[in-house]
Amino acid sequence: MSTITLISGSTMGSAEYVAEHMAEILDNLGFSTEILHGPSLDDLPLNGLWLVVTSTHGAGDLPENLQPLADEIAQQKPDLNLVTFGAVGIGSSEYDTFCGAIRSLEQLLEDHQAKRIGDRLEIDILQHEIPEDPAEKWVKEWAKLL
Ligand SMILES: Cc1cc2nc3c(=O)[nH]c(=O)nc-3n(C[C@H](O)[C@H](O)[C@H](O)COP(=O)(O)O)c2cc1C
């Protein structure tokens, strides 16, 4: 089966834990996975299946470890036509910019012709004390689309 590259953006680790949990589930389903925390564009397969998991910080901003990737994409304008991706955000609905990071990153990927598979998951930490729980449910459904 295909290799799935999990890309995480995180400040305090929540999104990383969620990415690791989803990778474990995908491994158990027979996929091979690699997890990259805050990768640069050079680290990523440009004909691959990505699962992007990011929290939101500042006022709707990407975490510091993922902003450089977004900057590289915006500057280098790679053709991501052969990339398909899933999108998972973690945020808090107390902010007007709830899950702003995954929304803007998804837009950036689509602007460069990447295609999203499945619906975006937005995990609200005010509703889910354990963000891995909704992530687990979502990724099992997402895997069926692959
Ligand atoms: C300073 C600060 C700013 C934040 N800004 C936002 C925001 O704009 N939108 C949002 O949905 N969540 C926001 N959050 C909530 C975080 O996304 C949430 O706590 C998340 O679980 C952090 O995950 P991480 O440890 O992977 O970075 C903010 C949190 C902090 C501490």
From TrEMBL:
GO molecular function, one term: FMN binding
Annotated SUPFAM superfamilies: Flavoproteins
Signal sequence extent: none
Domain Flavodoxin-like, first and last residues per copy: 4-143
Keywords: Flavoprotein, FMN
GO cellular component, one term: cytosol
PROSITE patterns referenced in this protein's UniProt entry, alphabetically: FLAVODOXIN_LIKE
Required cofactor names: FMN
Keyword set includes Methyltransferase: no
Lineage: Bacteria, Pseudomonadati, Pseudomonadota, Gammaproteobacteria, Enterobacterales
Official protein name in the record: FMN-binding protein MioC
Pfam annotation, one family: Flavodoxin_1
NCBIfam families: PRK09004.1
Originating organism: Xenorhabdus innexi
Cross-referenced Gene3D superfamilies: 3.40.50.360
